[in-house]
Specification:
The chain is of the alpha+beta class and 345 residues long. Helix content is 34%, strand content 23%. A seven-stranded mixed beta sheet has the order 8-11-7-12-9-13-10. InterPro entries: PurM-like_C_dom, PurM-like_C_sf, PurM-like_N, PurM-like_N_sf, SelD_I, SPS/SelD.
Length: 345
């Protein structure tokens, strides 16, 4: 049994960059039957972050599942990132996580203490979220993978979806992008210890604080930015709302060095999957560089919330979020539907 092996050496791809490409996924899901039930308020056909099922007139359950292979070598940190990412879907829908179930794939050749550390890291973030672990499922697998099935609750009026953006709204992003590119650089041992610490801090920051800071503010639409990239999740919001979203690149929070690595071609495979699916759905101004396009299509792991809200509320929200992180920015606006769903300026 090996305690010192690097977890990332056991993976081909890491984090949300390991997700099946959106084109392939769509081709499968679009040919599956859609379940009809009056209590199923949000299902997979909505392309939202989690499903919503009505329990009573004043309570809905929100359910999600998410797991992936490691993007860091430390097992405890990997557990924290995976749990933070899975919990995020509940926050993106306006709910509060309550119960979590572990999903763990683990190589039988590794020391069981590494399994303990992965689960302990996950538990730390579940506890921070105010939820509980109630069990789970494990299988032997040559590639380690970890994540959660999470159930949360909310009042029906508190539910946020990715398909209600309104003309005149501004867009707010609560975490920097470039995570997938820097994870790729980390795997290639190109990132310094300080930069890895900065990256890890972003991925292990719960979106709980971003969601809780919305209290008494008007929010029309919300999603979290993960493997489908900022353009991809922005497209889902724009398309579902029948609007166009304009993104201002000079306002984007971007992790330091991410543009440099993109310029060097340090790009995760998931970026190319995103590009193939989205290439005809967005338009860039002539001044947008190739590395900026790569950043916008970069698959994020445990990324931030993307919110569509009136400007007055957005300014108040950005002010509130200064208490929790320095990343939150207004990055664009929502307009009436144009020729493209996403316009990059």
């Amino acid at each position: 049994m090996n305690k010192t092996i690097k977890l990332t050496s056991l993976t081909k791809s890491s984090g949300c960059a390991a997700k099946i490409g959106p084109a392939v996924l769509d081709s499968v899901l679009n040919n599956l039957p859609k379940f009809e039930n009056s209590n199923l308020l949000v299902g997979f056909d909505k392309k939202d972050d989690a499903c919503v099922y009505k329990i009573s007139d004043d309570k809905v359950s929100i359910q999600t599942v998410d797991f992936f292979p490691p993007m860091v070598d430390d097992p405890y940190t990997f557990g924290q990132i995976a749990a933070t990412n899975a919990l995020s879907d509940i926050y993106a829908m306006g709910g509060n996580p309550a119960v979590a179930m572990n999903l763990l794939c683990f190589p039988s050749c590794l020391d069981p203490s590494l399994m303990h550390d992965i689960l302990s890291g996950g538990y730390s973030k579940i506890a921070e979220a105010g939820a509980v672990v109630a069990g789970g499922h494990t299988i032997a697998d040559p590639t380690p993978k970890y994540g959660l099935c999470v159930t949360g609750f909310a009042h029906p009026k508190e539910i946020l979806t990715n398909s209600n953006a309104q003309t005149g709204d501004v867009l707010v992003l609560t975490k920097p992008i470039g995570i997938g590119i820097l994870n790729t650089a980390t795997k290639a041992e190109l990132l310094s210890a300080d930069k890895i610490k900065e990256l890890t801090n972003v991925m292990t920051t719960l979106n709980k604080y971003a969601k809780d800071s919305l209290k008494n503010l008007n929010v029309n639409s919300c999603t979290d930015i993960t493997g489908f990239s900022l353009i991809g999740h922005g497209y889902e919001m724009a398309s579902g709302s029948n609007k166009t979203i304009e993104i201002f690149t000079d306002s984007l929070p971007i992790l330091s060095d991410a543009l440099d690595f993109a310029r060097m071609g340090i790009i995760p495979e998931g970026m190319y999957n995103n590009l193939e699916y989205l290439k005809d759905l967005f338009r860039c101004s002539n001044n947008i560089t190739q590395e900026m396009k790569d950043i916008l299509l970069d698959p994020q792991t445990s990324g931030g919330l993307l919110l569509s809200m009136p400007e007055k509320d957005a300014l108040e929200y950005v002010s509130r979020m200064e208490l929790y992180n320095p990343w939150t920015r207004i990055i664009g606006e929502v307009t009436d539907k144009k020729d493209y769903s996403i316009i990059i300026k």
